[in-house]
Write a structure and sequence with these properties.
It is built from 9 helices and 12 strands. The chain is of the alpha+beta class. The protein has 2 domains: 3-116 and 266-291, Aminopeptidase; 120-262, Aminopeptidase (3-Layer(aba) Sandwich). Strands 1, 2, 3, 4, 5, 6, 7, 8, 9, 10, 11 and 12 form a 12-stranded mixed beta sheet that branches. Strand 8 (177-183) and strand 9 (186-193) form a beta hairpin. The protein starts with a helix and ends with a helix.
Length: 295
């Protein structure tokens, strides 16, 4: 790439983003089928489909433009996120130490904090060894007939941190490889890999039935997923985990993965009636807290 083009690729008028996005990747997001973009001189907001959900991105020149334009832009894009298209709206927030000036904007938009996330990366897949399958379990490629059992495992394994029914279906559709771990003919865990992009592989998920956890199944599945990506010429691999799920961090670290990036995830229900009811409950609760029960 010549120097002028390199400067164009790396330049952006927006210095304040909810999460870092390279210009090339931003353009790819805008071009996604079903994406909605609104923009002004001071910034822009983008809503994209993402693994069965609706993901919110924004970029502004500074804090004042964010405060001014965010409510206007959000009112326009939220109409495209409906319950027939997604389970909820997602927004990541990366590298914002102080959220005091952001929280009122998010609260007015009914974007509630959900959980932290962390991307773990394996920097050298050529060092990943072939997984040794211990006695008593077997591994095989998953088939469409396994889908219902895998969905059940995924839902139970992630519990309150599960990403919604549409997310599982979307991951299954996006998976380029799926491996099932069996014990006595029953699937007790599985792993899904996405595509390899520019040498980087993506582990979409690893899940083990809670009744079979803490016996090395998660480590075995993740190692198999990493090795499979290496066989497809990936040089690195990334998986997103929840820091609140401590065993996931230990398994990743034990296989040589390290912290790449982290952030906070916000979610918005797409049930407008439920949002209205929750706002009314907060309003009434606030009155009671300030003035007691005399009303």
């Amino acid at each position: 790439m010549n120097e002028p083009r390199r400067m164009i690729e790396s330049s952006s008028p927006w210095t304040l983003r909810n999460a870092p996005v390279r210009p090339r990747d931003w353009r790819a997001l805008i071009e996604l089928p079903g994406a909605t973009l609104v923009e002004d001189d001071g910034g822009e907001m983008l809503l994209t489909p993402d693994l069965g959900q609706a993901r919110l991105h924004w970029a502004y020149t500074d804090i004042e433009e964010l405060r001014l334009l965010f409510p206007q832009h959000f009112e326009q894009v939220r109409k495209q996120a409906t319950a027939d298209r997604a389970d909820y709206m997602i927004m990541d927030l990366v590298a914002f130490v102080n959220r005091d000036w952001l929280d009122p904007l998010f609260r007015d938009a009914s974007l509630d904090f959900f959980a932290e996330w962390m991307d773990m990366v394996h920097p050298a897949l050529d060092t990943v060894e072939v997984p040794e399958i211990p006695d008593g379990v077997t591994m095989r490629r998953a088939t469409p007939a396994d889908t219902d059992r895998m969905r059940e495992i995924w839902t139970d394994a992630y519990g309150e941190y599960a990403d919604g029914p549409r997310s599982f279906d979307a991951m299954m559709a996006a998976a380029s490889w799926s491996g099932a771990l069996e014990r006595q003919g029953e699937i007790i865990g599985f792993a899904l890999n996405g595509d390899v992009e520019r040498g980087e592989g993506h582990v979409l998920t690893v899940a083990v039935d809670p009744e079979h956890q803490h016996h090395g199944g998660g480590k075995l599945l993740l190692q198999a997923a990493l090795y499979q990506l290496a066989s497809k010429d990936a040089t690195t691999a990334v998986i997103r985990v929840r820091p609140d799920i401590k065993p996931a961090l230990r398994v990743c670290a034990g296989l040589g993965m390290r912290h790449l990036r982290s952030g906070h995830e916000f979610r918005r229900s797409l049930d407008e009636a439920a949002i209205t009811a929750a706002r009314e409950a907060r309003r009434v609760g606030g009155v009671k807290a300030r003035f007691g029960e005399w009303r």
